[in-house]
Amino acid sequence: MAAGGLKDLVKKGLGLADMEFITGGGAINWFPGHMAAATSAIRGRLKLADLVIEVRDARIPLSSANQDLEAQLRSKRSLVALNKKDLANPNIMHRWTRFFESSGKDCLPISAHSRSSVSKLLELVEYKLKEVISREPTLLVMVVGVPNVGKSALINSIHQIASSRFPVQGKMKRATVGPLPGVTQDIAGYKIAHQPSIYVLDTPGVLVPSIPDIETGLKLALAGSVKDSVVGEERIAQYLLAVLNTRRTPLHWRNSHNSRTEAIQHDAQEKVDYSLINLQPRRKMPNKSGVLYVEDLVTKVECALYSTLSEFDGSVDDEADLEMLIDQQFEALQKAFKIANKGPEARLMVSKKFLTLFRTGKLGPFILDDVPDSNLPQ
Q1: Which residue from 88, 371, 346 is spatially nearest to 237, judged by alpha carbons?
Q2: How far from each other are the two terminal CA atoms of the chain, in whole angstroms?
Q3: How many Å apart are CA 197 and CA 167, to the nearest integer?
Q4: pLDDT per residue over 99-129, tens digit each?
Q5: What is the pTM assigned to this prediction?
Q6: Residue 144, beta-bridge partner list
Q7: Which residues, in sequence order, are CB contacts of 94 under 8 Å at separation 6+?
């Protein structure tokens, strides 16, 4: 399906043209009042930073950028850290790194929870700061990014690495930088290198994502950077189904479904209460059973979507047909999740469970954005 067709569906077929975003300045916005001061403070700190690590979600490399900071970042040494690479499609990740490189930006896919991955990021930071070592005895690195891209996880990993390199600061609640020329108060951070002294600020801050269009807003919501309550779980789930169907993704699940079905030997007699939030059992039980439960659930979901799409005699390129298919898939998913409720309550429960599977990577790795330059080598 052409990109324009999907956008039309997003606005018309899914009834999202009237999404209750607060608009201002022509761009869609959700701007909680308490974030205004935080954004202003981040802009002030950016002026002091010698290098900026811009954290983005690897599943939405463009949509998770904060466009309001673009002009300010262009004047700074910066690099893009594509976090959550384990949730992103590895087969096309190289195209994104090439895209950023062609745009003059250093880019590194990372997993913020991996020490080796974060260590590589810090090596790149030190390399990029080599040219200013002779001029500045103390250098500041700042981490920025929209909500839920993994800034806090990255800061925590950096803190652990910094504590092992410089044990003294590991015993302190905060390692202090300064005093710095032109700064009236010290700035808290963690030392990651010596000669010169390089510090990473320990407060990542909160940035409000710029949302230039509805589809960008839906991608941010799907990745968790915009609260579900702003858009609504059902609408987000509808969008996810639209993306999967227009990409024909469920048709590719057939082989994995067959092999997984043969491997799973799940005891249907065992009743286990699983948390909707993270699909983990509420009571302790053998790890193997928990894994089999989730795999069995994923198999049923994939089978439901594969069956509905493969048997569908309409066209996913037609808005009305696709909307009809999505309604059928909600019913199939309700059976797969064994939800007895009816009406809106059932669709809400289906949406929440389906989104949980996607966000935890159980449905496989995805990159929702398209690489802008189609001429890049594949």
Answers
A1: 346
A2: 20
A3: 15
A4: 999 999 999 999 999 999 999 999 999 888 8
A5: 0.82
A6: 54
A7: none
